[in-house]
Amino acid sequence: MNYTEWKQEYLECLIQLIKRHEYSKNHSNDSINELVIELLERGGFDEDFGHWEVTPPAQAVQESLELWLTDYFTD
Prior knowledge:
- With about 80 residues, this protein is an all-alpha fold.
- About 65% of the residues lie in helices and about 0% in strands.
- It contains three helices and no strands.
- α1 crosses α2 (about 30-40), α1 (about 5-20) packs across α3 (about 55-75) and α2 packs across α3 (about 55-75).
């Protein structure tokens, strides 16, 4: 799997998970799309970093979802 395929799977899965979460009910599609790109970068899953090569998309999605919930919704 190349990076483009990996990223596409990651983005699609994470967008769907976030959209189903109650915390995202008042967020637009644009804001959710911006959020998943931010989470991609913050998780170290950009193409140049290389972390994506050893992390399956499903695992990266779970890590990013946990990061989102922890950073945005806990004190």
